[in-house]
């Protein structure tokens, strides 16, 4: 992408701490779901969203929100794992789909064992198009700026695809596994899905992400830092806690 493309100021909400950030994202998700109960939602595996998922479960249990009519599509998944018991799907089942009793028929997971993964990507794209697009994507930010598994250098002009994982993702991704795991390839929704989504929430917490958050805000939109796509979205919002926002200067908030 040429350096000439200018981004816009990112719509931003800065929360006091991780708990407030998680509550804020849960509020936005509930608001969206109430407006359209049969929304197609895309939620991320990873540590950023775990508390948000607990809050959504609490709210579903209290009847404040109802996920029974909603549909779900996977954001990303590791490929070629010898042991799949700790992959993104397992994480989502454990932390969201099972606790909230989501009907399995309403979840479109990536079939990582499909004979033809390119065809599988097209089939996931079709699922999304057939549902009229994704209504809401909740995203986390990788330490290298990735969104889903859209790694640095990947085009913004693609839908679901198979990707080679960046060395940072290979290393940081170890945190999801109880033993050392070879992470070489992944399958992910593409940045075009992020552009097309009716609402995008990027949720980032913690000091460890402060530097990459600064780059997302202060670099020109570029394939090298996929998170910079937030500067190009009309329907995007970044929800930060104070730690993740601590390196930012001059950010105007909601
Ligand atoms: N592929 C996942 C992303 O979908 C996730 O949102 C992001 C942040 O992860 P975490 O929330 O664990 O920091 O990186 C992971 O590698």
TrEMBL record:
Coiled coil: none annotated. GO terms for cellular component: cytoplasm. It holds the Pfam family Glucosamine_iso. Residues 27-230 form the Glucosamine/galactosamine-6-phosphate isomerase domain. SUPFAM superfamilies: NagB/RpiA/CoA transferase-like. It comes from the Bacteria. GO terms for biological process: carbohydrate metabolic process; glucosamine catabolic process; N-acetylglucosamine catabolic process; N-acetylneuraminate catabolic process. The keyword Hydrolase applies. Keywords: Carbohydrate metabolism, Hydrolase, Isomerase. The keyword Metal-binding does not apply. InterPro entries: Glc/Gal-6P_isomerase, Glucosamine6P_isomerase, Glucosamine6P_isomerase_CS, NagB/RpiA_transferase-like. One of its GO terms (molecular function) is identical protein binding. This is 6-phosphogluconolactonase/Glucosamine-6-phosphate isomerase/deaminase. It comes from Ruminiclostridium cellobioparum subsp. termitidis CT1112.
């Amino acid at each position: 992408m040429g350096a000439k493309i200018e981004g816009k100021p990112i719509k931003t909400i800065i929360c006091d701490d991780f708990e407030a950030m998680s509550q804020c994202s849960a509020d936005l998700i509930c608001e969206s779901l109430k407006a359209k109960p049969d929304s197609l939602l895309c939620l991320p595996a990873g540590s950023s969203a775990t508390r948000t998922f607990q809050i959504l479960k609490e709210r579903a249990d209290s009847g404040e929100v109802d996920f029974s009519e909603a549909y779900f599509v996977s954001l990303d998944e590791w490929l070629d794992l010898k042991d799949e018991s700790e992959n993104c799907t397992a994480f989502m089942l454990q932390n969201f789909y099972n606790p909230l009793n989501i009907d399995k028929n309403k979840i479109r997971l990536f079939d990582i064992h499909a004979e033809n993964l390119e065809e599988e990507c097209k089939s996931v794209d079709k699922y999304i198009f057939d549902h009229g697009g994704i209504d809401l994507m909740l995203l986390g930010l990788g330490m290298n700026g990735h969104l889903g598994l859209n790694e640095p250098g990947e085009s913004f002009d693609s839908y679901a695809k198979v990707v080679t994982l960046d060395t940072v993702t290979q290393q940081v991704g170890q945190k999801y596994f109880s033993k050392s795991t070879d992470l070489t390839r992944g399958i992910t929704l593409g940045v075009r899905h992020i552009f097309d989504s009716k609402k995008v929430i990027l949720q980032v917490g913690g000091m460890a992400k402060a530097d990459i958050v600064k780059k997302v805000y202060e670099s020109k939109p570029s394939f090298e830092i996929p998170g910079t796509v937030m500067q190009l979205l009309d329907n995007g919002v970044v929800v930060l806690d104070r730690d993740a926002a601590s390196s930012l200067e001059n950010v105007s908030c909601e």
